[in-house]
Protein backbone atom coordinates (compact mmCIF):
# COMPACT_ATOMS: atom_id res chain seq x y z
CA UNK A 1 0.00 0.00 0.00
CA UNK A 2 1.28 3.42 -0.91
CA UNK A 3 2.18 5.73 1.96
CA UNK A 4 0.90 9.32 1.56
CA UNK A 5 3.22 12.23 2.10
CA UNK A 6 3.52 13.39 5.67
CA UNK A 7 1.55 16.47 6.70
CA UNK A 8 4.74 18.52 7.23
CA UNK A 9 6.07 17.74 3.75
CA UNK A 10 2.68 18.51 2.19
CA UNK A 11 2.47 21.86 3.94
CA UNK A 12 5.98 22.80 2.85
CA UNK A 13 5.13 22.10 -0.77
CA UNK A 14 1.88 24.03 -0.51
CA UNK A 15 3.68 26.99 0.99
CA UNK A 16 6.21 26.98 -1.85
CA UNK A 17 3.54 27.48 -4.51
CA UNK A 18 1.35 29.91 -2.61
CA UNK A 19 1.37 33.69 -2.58
CA UNK A 20 3.83 35.30 -0.13
CA UNK A 21 2.91 34.23 3.37
CA UNK A 22 2.09 36.47 6.26
CA UNK A 23 4.17 36.23 9.39
CA UNK A 24 3.57 32.95 11.20
CA UNK A 25 1.97 32.85 14.62
CA UNK A 26 4.62 31.66 17.03
CA UNK A 27 2.03 29.84 19.17
CA UNK A 28 0.66 27.75 16.28
CA UNK A 29 0.98 24.01 16.83
CA UNK A 30 3.21 22.01 14.52
CA UNK A 31 0.31 20.22 12.77
CA UNK A 32 -1.72 23.34 11.91
CA UNK A 33 -2.08 24.48 8.31
CA UNK A 34 -0.90 28.09 8.06
CA UNK A 35 -3.79 30.34 7.11
CA UNK A 36 -2.89 32.52 4.15
CA UNK A 37 -5.78 34.48 2.74
CA UNK A 38 -6.08 33.85 -0.99
CA UNK A 39 -8.90 34.40 -3.40
CA UNK A 40 -10.91 31.28 -4.22
CA UNK A 41 -9.96 31.07 -7.90
CA UNK A 42 -6.23 31.17 -7.08
CA UNK A 43 -6.59 28.42 -4.48
CA UNK A 44 -8.69 26.19 -6.71
CA UNK A 45 -6.40 26.68 -9.73
CA UNK A 46 -3.32 25.82 -7.65
CA UNK A 47 -4.99 22.67 -6.35
CA UNK A 48 -5.98 21.66 -9.87
CA UNK A 49 -2.40 22.10 -11.11
CA UNK A 50 -1.10 19.80 -8.38
CA UNK A 51 -3.76 17.26 -9.27
CA UNK A 52 -2.82 17.35 -12.96
CA UNK A 53 0.83 16.78 -12.05
CA UNK A 54 0.01 13.73 -9.97
CA UNK A 55 0.84 15.41 -6.66
CA UNK A 56 -2.33 14.23 -5.02
CA UNK A 57 -1.58 14.91 -1.35
CA UNK A 58 -0.79 18.58 -2.03
CA UNK A 59 -3.82 18.90 -4.27
CA UNK A 60 -6.10 17.47 -1.59
CA UNK A 61 -4.71 19.87 1.04
CA UNK A 62 -5.32 22.87 -1.22
CA UNK A 63 -8.85 21.74 -2.09
CA UNK A 64 -9.46 21.52 1.66
CA UNK A 65 -8.20 25.10 1.94
CA UNK A 66 -10.79 26.24 -0.61
CA UNK A 67 -13.50 24.86 1.64
CA UNK A 68 -11.91 26.31 4.78
CA UNK A 69 -11.33 29.82 3.48
CA UNK A 70 -14.43 30.14 1.29
CA UNK A 71 -17.04 27.80 2.81
CA UNK A 72 -20.04 29.58 1.27
CA UNK A 73 -18.73 29.92 -2.27
CA UNK A 74 -19.85 27.73 -5.15
CA UNK A 75 -16.24 26.58 -5.39
CA UNK A 76 -16.34 25.06 -1.91
CA UNK A 77 -18.91 22.44 -2.87
CA UNK A 78 -16.83 21.30 -5.83
CA UNK A 79 -13.62 21.43 -3.80
CA UNK A 80 -15.03 18.93 -1.30
CA UNK A 81 -15.48 16.34 -4.01
CA UNK A 82 -12.13 17.14 -5.61
CA UNK A 83 -10.48 16.73 -2.24
CA UNK A 84 -12.11 13.29 -1.84
CA UNK A 85 -10.97 12.36 -5.35
CA UNK A 86 -7.41 13.52 -4.69
CA UNK A 87 -7.19 11.54 -1.46
CA UNK A 88 -8.53 8.50 -3.34
CA UNK A 89 -5.78 8.79 -5.98
CA UNK A 90 -3.24 9.12 -3.17
CA UNK A 91 -4.69 5.87 -1.70
CA UNK A 92 -5.49 7.73 1.52
CA UNK A 93 -8.84 5.98 1.66
CA UNK A 94 -9.82 7.09 5.16
CA UNK A 95 -9.55 10.79 4.29
CA UNK A 96 -11.24 10.25 0.95
CA UNK A 97 -14.22 8.61 2.66
CA UNK A 98 -14.37 11.41 5.24
CA UNK A 99 -14.38 14.10 2.53
CA UNK A 100 -17.06 12.35 0.50
CA UNK A 101 -19.22 11.78 3.57
CA UNK A 102 -18.85 15.44 4.55
CA UNK A 103 -20.01 16.43 1.06
CA UNK A 104 -23.07 14.19 1.37
CA UNK A 105 -23.90 15.53 4.83
CA UNK A 106 -23.90 19.13 3.57
CA UNK A 107 -25.27 18.52 0.05
CA UNK A 108 -27.38 15.33 0.22
CA UNK A 109 -29.48 16.22 -2.83
CA UNK A 110 -26.72 17.55 -5.03
CA UNK A 111 -26.42 16.18 -8.56
CA UNK A 112 -22.90 14.96 -7.73
CA UNK A 113 -24.14 12.88 -4.77
CA UNK A 114 -24.03 9.61 -6.79
CA UNK A 115 -20.35 10.23 -7.48
CA UNK A 116 -19.67 10.78 -3.77
CA UNK A 117 -21.33 7.46 -2.95
CA UNK A 118 -19.32 5.83 -5.73
CA UNK A 119 -16.04 7.18 -4.35
CA UNK A 120 -16.86 5.83 -0.89
CA UNK A 121 -17.62 2.41 -2.37
CA UNK A 122 -14.40 2.41 -4.40
CA UNK A 123 -12.34 3.26 -1.32
CA UNK A 124 -13.68 0.19 0.47
CA UNK A 125 -13.54 -2.00 -2.64
CA UNK A 126 -9.86 -1.33 -3.28
CA UNK A 127 -8.95 -2.36 0.26
CA UNK A 128 -10.43 -5.85 -0.07
CA UNK A 129 -7.91 -8.45 1.04
CA UNK A 130 -7.61 -12.12 0.12
CA UNK A 131 -9.93 -14.66 1.74
CA UNK A 132 -7.32 -15.76 4.27
CA UNK A 133 -7.72 -12.44 6.11
CA UNK A 134 -10.55 -10.63 7.92
CA UNK A 135 -13.33 -9.53 5.56
CA UNK A 136 -14.76 -6.53 7.45
CA UNK A 137 -13.69 -4.17 4.66
CA UNK A 138 -15.26 -6.49 2.10
CA UNK A 139 -18.61 -6.26 3.88
CA UNK A 140 -18.29 -2.47 4.05
CA UNK A 141 -17.63 -2.43 0.30
CA UNK A 142 -20.75 -4.52 -0.30
CA UNK A 143 -22.84 -2.21 1.89
CA UNK A 144 -21.55 0.93 0.13
CA UNK A 145 -22.06 -0.51 -3.35
CA UNK A 146 -25.54 -1.65 -2.40
CA UNK A 147 -26.45 1.80 -1.09
CA UNK A 148 -25.32 3.41 -4.34
CA UNK A 149 -27.37 0.92 -6.38
CA UNK A 150 -30.48 1.45 -4.25
CA UNK A 151 -30.33 5.22 -4.16
CA UNK A 152 -29.31 5.84 -7.76
CA UNK A 153 -30.15 2.75 -9.85
CA UNK A 154 -30.17 4.79 -13.06
CA UNK A 155 -26.93 6.68 -12.50
CA UNK A 156 -23.85 6.26 -14.66
CA UNK A 157 -22.11 4.50 -11.75
CA UNK A 158 -24.84 1.94 -11.01
CA UNK A 159 -23.83 -0.61 -13.67
CA UNK A 160 -20.26 -0.76 -12.37
CA UNK A 161 -21.58 -0.99 -8.81
CA UNK A 162 -23.75 -3.99 -9.70
CA UNK A 163 -20.80 -5.75 -11.33
CA UNK A 164 -18.66 -5.14 -8.27
CA UNK A 165 -21.46 -6.37 -5.99
CA UNK A 166 -21.37 -9.75 -7.76
CA UNK A 167 -17.59 -9.91 -7.36
CA UNK A 168 -17.73 -8.94 -3.69
CA UNK A 169 -20.44 -11.50 -2.91
CA UNK A 170 -18.37 -14.19 -4.60
CA UNK A 171 -15.39 -13.11 -2.49
CA UNK A 172 -17.41 -13.35 0.74
CA UNK A 173 -18.69 -16.78 -0.28
CA UNK A 174 -15.10 -17.81 -0.88
CA UNK A 175 -14.24 -16.82 2.68
CA UNK A 176 -17.05 -19.02 4.05
CA UNK A 177 -15.82 -21.92 1.92
CA UNK A 178 -12.27 -21.49 3.16
CA UNK A 179 -13.42 -21.64 6.78
CA UNK A 180 -15.71 -24.59 6.09
CA UNK A 181 -12.92 -26.58 4.43
CA UNK A 182 -10.66 -25.79 7.39
CA UNK A 183 -13.28 -27.17 9.81
CA UNK A 184 -13.56 -30.29 7.63
CA UNK A 185 -9.84 -30.99 7.89
CA UNK A 186 -10.18 -30.87 11.68
CA UNK A 187 -13.22 -33.14 11.72
CA UNK A 188 -15.44 -30.35 13.03
CA UNK A 189 -18.38 -31.44 10.90
CA UNK A 190 -21.08 -29.26 12.42
CA UNK A 191 -19.04 -26.08 12.10
CA UNK A 192 -18.22 -26.97 8.49
CA UNK A 193 -21.88 -27.69 7.74
CA UNK A 194 -22.96 -24.29 9.03
CA UNK A 195 -20.44 -22.52 6.78
CA UNK A 196 -21.47 -24.44 3.68
CA UNK A 197 -25.14 -23.84 4.41
CA UNK A 198 -24.44 -20.11 4.69
CA UNK A 199 -22.97 -20.13 1.18
CA UNK A 200 -26.09 -21.85 -0.19
CA UNK A 201 -28.53 -19.65 1.72
CA UNK A 202 -26.84 -16.24 1.45
CA UNK A 203 -24.69 -16.49 -1.70
CA UNK A 204 -26.73 -18.78 -3.92
CA UNK A 205 -25.82 -16.98 -7.16
CA UNK A 206 -22.06 -17.29 -6.66
CA UNK A 207 -19.62 -19.73 -8.25
CA UNK A 208 -19.06 -21.52 -4.93
CA UNK A 209 -22.53 -23.13 -4.62
CA UNK A 210 -21.76 -26.42 -6.47
CA UNK A 211 -18.80 -27.14 -4.22
CA UNK A 212 -20.77 -26.11 -1.14
CA UNK A 213 -23.49 -28.65 -2.00
CA UNK A 214 -20.90 -31.39 -2.46
CA UNK A 215 -19.24 -30.47 0.83
CA UNK A 216 -22.61 -30.62 2.54
CA UNK A 217 -23.04 -34.13 1.20
CA UNK A 218 -19.72 -35.00 2.84
CA UNK A 219 -20.45 -33.37 6.19
CA UNK A 220 -24.00 -34.72 6.47
CA UNK A 221 -22.70 -38.25 5.89
CA UNK A 222 -20.01 -37.67 8.52
CA UNK A 223 -22.68 -36.44 10.96
CA UNK A 224 -24.77 -39.56 10.35
CA UNK A 225 -27.69 -37.95 8.54
CA UNK A 226 -27.67 -39.64 5.11
CA UNK A 227 -31.15 -38.34 4.25
CA UNK A 228 -29.85 -34.74 4.33
CA UNK A 229 -26.77 -35.79 2.38
CA UNK A 230 -29.00 -37.29 -0.29
CA UNK A 231 -31.03 -34.05 -0.48
CA UNK A 232 -27.87 -32.00 -1.03
CA UNK A 233 -26.70 -34.37 -3.75
CA UNK A 234 -30.14 -34.24 -5.40
CA UNK A 235 -30.12 -30.43 -5.46
CA UNK A 236 -26.61 -30.52 -6.87
CA UNK A 237 -27.66 -33.00 -9.57
CA UNK A 238 -30.74 -30.97 -10.51
CA UNK A 239 -28.86 -27.69 -10.87
CA UNK A 240 -25.28 -28.65 -11.75
CA UNK A 241 -25.48 -32.15 -13.31
CA UNK A 242 -22.38 -31.91 -15.47
CA UNK A 243 -19.93 -30.73 -12.82
CA UNK A 244 -17.11 -32.57 -11.11
CA UNK A 245 -18.78 -31.69 -7.81
CA UNK A 246 -21.87 -33.74 -8.70
CA UNK A 247 -19.70 -36.67 -9.75
CA UNK A 248 -18.04 -36.61 -6.35
CA UNK A 249 -21.34 -36.30 -4.49
CA UNK A 250 -22.87 -39.17 -6.50
CA UNK A 251 -19.91 -41.40 -5.67
CA UNK A 252 -20.24 -40.56 -1.98
CA UNK A 253 -23.93 -41.49 -1.98
CA UNK A 254 -23.20 -44.76 -3.79
CA UNK A 255 -20.35 -45.59 -1.44
CA UNK A 256 -22.68 -45.00 1.49
CA UNK A 257 -24.90 -47.81 0.16
CA UNK A 258 -27.87 -45.85 -1.22
CA UNK A 259 -28.32 -47.66 -4.54
CA UNK A 260 -31.58 -45.84 -5.25
CA UNK A 261 -29.75 -42.62 -6.13
CA UNK A 262 -29.63 -42.32 -9.92
CA UNK A 263 -27.91 -39.81 -12.14
CA UNK A 264 -30.16 -37.57 -14.25
CA UNK A 265 -30.74 -38.84 -17.77
CA UNK A 266 -29.34 -35.63 -19.23
CA UNK A 267 -26.00 -36.52 -17.65
CA UNK A 268 -25.73 -39.95 -19.33
CA UNK A 269 -22.23 -41.06 -20.16
CA UNK A 270 -20.60 -43.94 -21.94
CA UNK A 271 -20.33 -47.08 -19.88
CA UNK A 272 -16.57 -46.74 -19.63
CA UNK A 273 -16.94 -43.22 -18.20
CA UNK A 274 -19.31 -44.16 -15.37
CA UNK A 275 -17.76 -43.76 -11.87
CA UNK A 276 -17.03 -46.94 -10.00
CA UNK A 277 -19.50 -47.62 -7.20
CA UNK A 278 -16.65 -48.01 -4.70
CA UNK A 279 -14.74 -44.86 -5.69
CA UNK A 280 -13.85 -42.44 -2.90
Comma- or semicolon-separated keywords:
mainly alpha, disordered C terminus, 280 residues, 12 helices, disordered N terminus
Describe the structure in your own words.
This protein is mostly helical and 280 residues long. It is built from twelve helices and no strands. It is elongated. The protein starts with 6 loop residues before the first helix and ends in a 25-residue tail after the last helix.
**Low-confidence segments:** 1-33, 267-280
Q: Which sheet architecture does the biggest sheet show?
A: none
Query: What is the number of helical segments per DSSP (H or I, 4+ residues)?
Result: 12
> Would you list the SSEs in sequence order as H and E?
HHHHHHHHHHHH
How would you sum up this structure in a few lines?
The chain has 280 residues and is mostly helical. 64% of the residues lie in helices and 0% in strands. Residues 1-33 and 267-280 have low confidence and may be disordered.
List the helices and strands and how they pair.
Layout: H1 7-17, H2 40-52, H3 56-69, H4 74-89, H5 93-106, H6 113-125, H7 136-151, H8 158-185, H9 189-202, H10 209-223, H11 226-239, H12 244-255
